[in-house]
Design goal:
Strands 8-14-15-16-17-26-23-22-19-20 form a ten-stranded antiparallel sheet, covered by helices on one side. Strands 9, 10, 11, 12, 13, 18, 21, 24 and 25 form a nine-stranded antiparallel sheet that branches. Strands 1, 2, 4, 7, 27 and 28 form a six-stranded antiparallel sheet that branches. Helix 1 (2-18) runs antiparallel to helix 2 and helix 1 packs parallel to helix 4 (49-78). It has nine helices and 34 strands. By secondary structure, the protein is α+β, with helices and mostly antiparallel strands. Among the domains are: 1-194 and 468-491, Sandwich (Immunoglobulin-like), CATH 2.60.40; 501-559 and 581-603, Immunoglobulin-like (Sandwich), CATH 2.60.40.1360. A hairpin with a 3-residue loop joins strand 14 and strand 15 (285-293).
Length: 642
Amino acid sequence: MFIFILFIFQACKQVNALAKLRENKLVDKLWREFSIVQHHDAITGTAKQQVDNDYRKRLAEGIESCQTVMGDAYKKWLRTKGNLEHYFCNQLNISYCKVIETYSEFLITLYNPLAHNVTHWIRIPVIARNAFKVLNVDNEKVPVQLVKIMNSTQQIPERQDSKATHELIFRAYLPALGYTTYFVRNTKKPVSSQLSVESKLSHTNKIISNQFIEMEFSHWTGLPVRLTNKHKQITTTFQQSLMYYKSALNYDQPSGPYIFRPEDNRPNVFNFNATDVTIFTGPLVTEVYLEYSSWAKQVLRLYNDSITVEMEWTVGPIPLDNYQGKEVITDYLTGLNNNREIFTDANSRQMMHRRYNYRPSWNFRNTENVAGNYYPITSQAFIKDVSRDVQFTVFVDRAEGGGSIKNGSIEIMLHRRGTKDDMLGVGEPLDERGVDGDALVVRGKHQLLLDTKEASTHYHRLKSLMILNEPIISFMRVNRKMRSKFNLEWSALKRALPREINLLTFEEWEGKTYLIRLEHIYEQHEVNYPVKVDLTDLFKNINIVQLTEMTLGGNMELSELSRLKWKSANLDKVQNEYADRIPPNGLEITLKPMEIRTFKILKSRIKQGPYKFSHIPKTCFSLLSLSLSLSLSLSLCLSLSL
């Protein structure tokens, strides 16, 4: 939820600046609501239910405001006329987009907030009576595949009024910091040629594969047993399944909103067999559906040309048998010997080394062998084999908790429901209800990568960026003749940024200025060299005439910053850490590993008025922009706003 809102907010600021809309009050709306839910009880889910309901209402209103900004930008960029509207479907993850179900022709607009060219697999819920044709901006036909929407998805309460029967799948190519479009038309041709082939497991093991990855499933259990990287000739035993812990009901310290405490250190397995497996095969993707119970299902998905396996899980409503809460996990058990050591990210930046039952700064005596070895995972976690050049990585699409509880494993918490308050302040059990009044149904995705250590290091940063900054999708009802008059693709950049550099912030600032933040996404031991970025002629419609480096928060020029200077016992001189920061030619900058630099750029020949935000200090807005990207504390910023 928070990650989805974050990339909506960043994209909203980008398009408002790039399209010169000046719709600052609408941008401000999401900013205000998002700043409120930076409260520690909002992020962790430890607020009372009525407070959480208010958070959701506020965020929904803020998202709607920002989607208005994006729709206005599309109208300007595409040069549409009349009352054509862009519709955003925020529940595509559950195959729900009611507005397009009756459309025979429509245009899909995809905005890429990253400063890199990306590819992305698009999945659109449709009613598959006839075949579909998808055209790119060059009027070329795009390969498609239709995959049946399973009953488990159709039964999700939020999509009960949907008549969509299949998902239309195709691969999209998006320019850096820009948009592209795809035209979809329902033809009169038979749909059978685009349907996936449905099958069950036979008397032999089933192997799904593409040119990079191979995964084998047991015909006895229906579960995966082996994972292979064909390109690198790496193979490992691989067991993956959904499980659950029973929540501790002890009166001294039960499991609850703040506390994860299982009743037993061994998770419970579902009564699952191979007959509960359904396989869909086609030219673009192969999907293996596993239904553990009526409230726990998953899909293992292998796209053509992908080097990762996608695991989509759906959990809920979790039953409370005999008043017993449950903590649902997924367990990835590999053949790697990692000594139960795992690496997890810190706010999607540095990777932290975690050792089982160990803390680096004190002698740790653990009484909770499962919960005491869980750590926050914001974007990814991986384990390394101590004797082989093999690494297994799991990318998450939201903040989750996990650890390496067994040798060779990565265990991740997916969903929880309890019956006890843990007596730490909430005063309520963790028992959130869905739209139908029953317990909540949750869906998410993991991406799985098996590769060498070096290759994994170079890939995992970019992959995390793409997961946390997915393209923003909208739909517009048009016909082919109307489409021919549109500007179907555009990028704000003349060239993409180097793969080591991420455009963390881009927004209109005061008068003729923009504020940008650039970050080097790799650590020193991953990429041990600085990267230069030349801003000269980088943007198509922005002529930069002056570049001023600011402090990280953007509230003052770096040259005006005065810090305390410390002498070390082994140094004779105080070293100036900012000596090489000022660009020598004014527009070429250098970023070292893990470095973030903030700049105010002055543009020419564009007359614009001041950027107003009610009575909120500009300094606060800048600090918040950074905080939303890095999950920093907002207490100072919010206190300045009151």
